[in-house]
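Sample entry copied in:
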Amino acid sequence: MIETILVATDGSEAAGAAERYGVALAARIHARVTCLSVVEERATRGFRSEGLGIAPPSLDALEGFLVARAEAAGRRLAAAAREQGVECTAETPRGVADDAIVERGKQADLIVLGRDGEHAGFRTALIGSTVDGVLRKTSKPAVVVPAAAELTGPVLLAFDGSPGSRIAARLAVELAGRLGETIHVFVDSKDKGRSAARFDEVRRLLGAPNVPVREAASTLGRPDAKIVDAAREASAGMIVMGAFGRSRIHEYFLGSNSAAVVRSSPVAVLLAR
């Protein structure tokens, strides 16, 4: 049962999408929100070295700015939560952002993150380093929110028969029921026989949900692209899938369908663990 949601924000415009999505989700499922805005130590750590015999500058102003920005981000999210009738507390710890989010996230049922972060305009990679760090380290389910994503429309469950996708099925049932949205089940398989077996399995996992269920399958093309296309076709408000597929170690080091979906999806993606 999702009762507490941790929304991580750095106060940037990109993070604003995660703030709005997290508050909207909490309002619709009647959950509490904790806003976490980390005073990032990496922003000042490099200036503390006295390499080449050059004394570091005074960091008082920069540290004051970082604290003020973190506190302002917390106030912004708390105000948005109050408008939606959502209970919200704000915390501004010091530390390395991804480590702080993972540690505080242990006390939450769900983590919500913006996909891009404050340096999105200067980055060539497709997700921010903080998001990447959190997704690799956390043991909690996490929602990654791209810019302009909205919590409207069905829940798309991407099911491949892996342990993570079985957990995703249970989360999809909970969320769709509490949101009052349809579940769209997408199965990717190399042959129709395996696809039919996976639909049988996911039907058993879903049981008799109190919302309608739609099914779709495909055997051709890249799985990640097909999942994103299926979400677009369903006008989904969220993709729910396992964080890892059948070969977890391989995917951790080389990337996975879930990582590719996170990078390319215009819809928020919940990675289940």
About this structure: The chain has a mean pLDDT of 87.
